Amino acid sequence: MMDHADDLASVQAATERLLTAVAALDNAAVTQSSRLPGWTRGHVLAHLARNADALVNVLQGRPMYVSGEARDAEIAEGAPRPLDVQLADLRESAERFRAVGAAPADWSRTVELRNGVTDRAERVPFRRWAEVELHHVDLGIGYELEDLPAAFTGREIDFLAARFDGHADVPTTTLATTDGRAWTTGGGAGGGPVAVEGTAADLLGWLAGRRDGSALAVKGGDLPALPPL
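User: That's the sequence. What structure does it adopt?
Assistant: Structure tokens below.
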């Protein structure tokens, strides 16, 4: 059951954790490489701020981004800004998202994201929560997948397993965590079934493209090569 109000509160808590961690950096750290290929920490921070505004657009019925090119240009332009400017932008864009989320609305309506993807409005807060949590990890400043709230980790595995379900490039794959949770995904490619097991953090890391899966136990074939998100 999706509860957008709870998710909005979780977004706020995750944002405060992020802001506190980023405030401990300095200008030099912002220019250093993040864990995302080709992106500095400044790129990650600029993306997080612009994503908040993009999701405001979604909730207010406007296109998420003017274009893919415009999105990339805004991130590149924002990346080299000093720490104080990055922090102010993160805070202000987060507040704009919070304010829109707090306004009365029909949360059962369908909204459009990027590339023609549609979803229910009530799922947008969780999408923002995922952006904040995973990109906090991507900054490489001491917040790891193991530090993510357990409730978030389980739900993000749910989301990603559903995203790859039936994918033409992924064989039938069963996913299991060492604490007993299980999912099935893939099924569009030949081979399998492949059984993949590991900690929730390692499983999420592999599904989200943050870890190579080498810590996972695999039976029934090779670890599937997942398409990019």
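The CA atoms of residues 66 and 213 lie 36 Å apart.
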